[in-house]
Fold this protein.
Amino acid sequence: MSKMALKVNGAVHTVDVEPSTPLLYILRNDLGLHGPHFGCGLGQCGACAVIIQGVATRSCVTPVSSVKGEITTLEGLAPPGKLHPIQQAWIEEQAPACGFCQNGQIMTAKALLDRNPNPTDAQIREGMNRTLCRCMTYYRIQAAIKRAAKMMAGKEARA
Ligand code: FES
Ligand code: FES
């Protein structure tokens, strides 16, 4: 076991863990952050995504000891009681079905919009590639990303 400090959503946590433990387990089991989901556990679906240094990162295949920089989870996208424009757009477009994959969809969309604030449909498809949804919500997710882009650019009033 090793003690290590993790900065998550603006707060520093000290954890005592095996260095090879997947970051996802630490977030869910030690820190009680249940936004990131366990889907495949193999780095293939994206349900476990968090953002580390601007990159949507699959926490199920990220050893905790390899993490450099602050981690943002779904819980950290907006202050308590508020919604990030992406979350608001998700609601307005009714993007989720069962919801299981949606953490990964939202966190991957956040990283995409941070590096490209006005993506085309093709760029959205490319940026969201390999973030899987069994419920086939892809078209609603695409619409939600376009709506969020407008909101974040101040071209559409938030509800
Ligand atoms: S649970 Fe991590 S990529 Fe599927
Ligand atoms: S909303 Fe059900 S898996 Fe995506």
Remarks:
- The chain is about 35% helix and 15% strand.
- The helical segments are 23-30, 85-92, 102-115, 121-127, 138-152.
- The chain has a mean pLDDT of 96.
- The chain has two domains: 2-76, 85-152.
